[in-house]
Amino acid sequence: xxxxxxxxxxxxxxxxxxxxxxxxxxxxxxxxxxxxxxxxxxxxxxxxxxxxxxxxxxxxxxxxxxxxxxxxxxxxxxxxxxxxxxxxxxxxxxxxxxxxxxxxxxxxxxxxxxxxxxxxxxxxxxxxxxxxxxxxxxxxxxxxxxxxxxxxxxxxxxxxxxxxxxxxxxxxxxxxxxxxxxxxxxxxxxxxxxxxxxx
Length: 199
Hints:
- By secondary structure, this protein is mostly beta strands.
- It has a domain at 55-183: Sulfite Oxidase, Chain A, domain 2 (Alpha-Beta Complex), CATH 3.90.420.
- It is 7% helix and 29% strand.
- The chain is globular and about 40 Å long.
- 31% of the residues are buried.
């Protein structure tokens, strides 16, 4: 027979389905940024994956748009406690971008126009878990939400889905990004409430 602690109910939940602990539903799409919104013309936009050996793989806007496109519908969860369910995006799977890249890296550091960065395990960008997205809800992704293109890694807190993304550096050792050096959790799993270092 197991040990039961009378009265223990766990963390309170909103009662909504698929909602991590400590989160509330919002019908809106709040805009949260660390600095000014970069204005990045599609004509000059590019996405670069650099390996730990210095090899670079580049895509222009037109080259990215010519890749196979996917339309994921996913829930997103912000570390500031809002969640939005059933959001629909369009973009390119990171699997397609990483395909054929020879690397021994275990980590990635996403870099954005505007000098934002965030770190992720490379495994979290593979196997249909992450996208480079350019469309939200059927329209071009607005600049305030990371357009022309942002990273979408919906199983982690939304700060890991870097806005205005311009590239990913593959790394053998983990390196914290902008918010992680400010005390946010290195991984950021919303289901485990990994908001800050030590959570």
